[in-house]
Amino acid sequence: MKRRQADGCVAFVCASIVFGGLAQAGTETTAFACATVTPGGPRLGDNGKKYLNVQGKKSGSEGQYASFGVVDFHAPAAGLQSGKVKGVTLTLVQSIPSSAHDGRVKFYLSNDTKSELGATAPNSKPALKFDKETADGLGEQLKTRFLLGSGAFTKDATGHVDTFKLTLSDAAEAYLREQLKRGGDIRLIVAPDGEDVAATYFGVGAPMESNRPKLTVDDASNP
Question: Which of the chain's ends, N or C, has fewer CB atoms near its CB within 10 Å?
């Protein structure tokens, strides 16, 4: 697979981005759940798990395809060896349709790991939906959220690997550290950072495990 550097910057703090050809230090965990959240709620059916789409408010007629992605990981089995997390890297593999469009995406860590990502009971409202009143579609959902950085999605080809080394604030590091110590789940959000972006990646239902989202946690004890 080819890998590209994905640049990123948030507010006044820039997120350093990993060159894909380099090996990642740390402990890796593969996502066990994901959702593409549209104005109607999480996308249902096989495609709701096979793909992860992040699309801005101009996607489709009146933003009908606007979406943000949610990805869940179990804490790596190795846990946390030291008292601090040095960093985290998110790896996503592109799955490219003709509608894919270059643009920017941004990343959050959420301490809400309970909101349902799948189908809800008949006639009930979905737990999550894309809020078209807000730029990234999140509104008041999935709080507390810790902003981890932003980066560029550049349409390449199916199978192309994007790696994003994310920035942890003190508050985000403290929360993540506790999740790792207790073996809790880690929920990341990938949201549009512009109205035109249409980023398309494989999700947890991808037939090949190597195409599924990965999270690498760098312990402070790693060199």
Answer: C
151 neighbors 8 (Cβ within 8 angstroms): yes
Whole-prediction pTM: 0.87
Q: Return the structure tokens found at 156.
A: 């390449």
Q: How far apart are CA 221 and CA 85, in angstroms?
A: 9
- Average pLDDT of the chain? 87
* φ/ψ (deg, to 5) at 73: -130, 145
Residue pLDDT, tens place only, 28-42: 999 999 999 999 999
Q: Which helix (H) or strand (E) holds 221?
A: none
59: which 2 tokens?
A: 């996607």
Residue found under tokens 């078209």: 132
pLDDT in tens, 162-201: 999 999 999 999 999 999 988 999 999 999 999 999 999 9
**What is the secondary structure of 87-147 as a DSSP string?**
EEEEEEEB---TT-B-EEEEEEEES---S--SPPPTTPPPS----TTSSSS-TT-S-SEEE
Q: Supply the DSSP string of 153-187, one letter for each residue.
A: E----TT-EEEEEEPPPHHHHHHHHHHHHHT-EEE
User: Are the beta carbons of 208 and 95 closer than 8 angstroms?
Assistant: no
Q: Return the amino acid letter for 120.
A: T
Please check whether residue 177 is in contact with residue 22, taking contact to mean a CB–CB distance below 8 angstroms: no
Rounded CA separation 23/120 (Å): 40
Tell me the sheet residues that pair with 5: 163
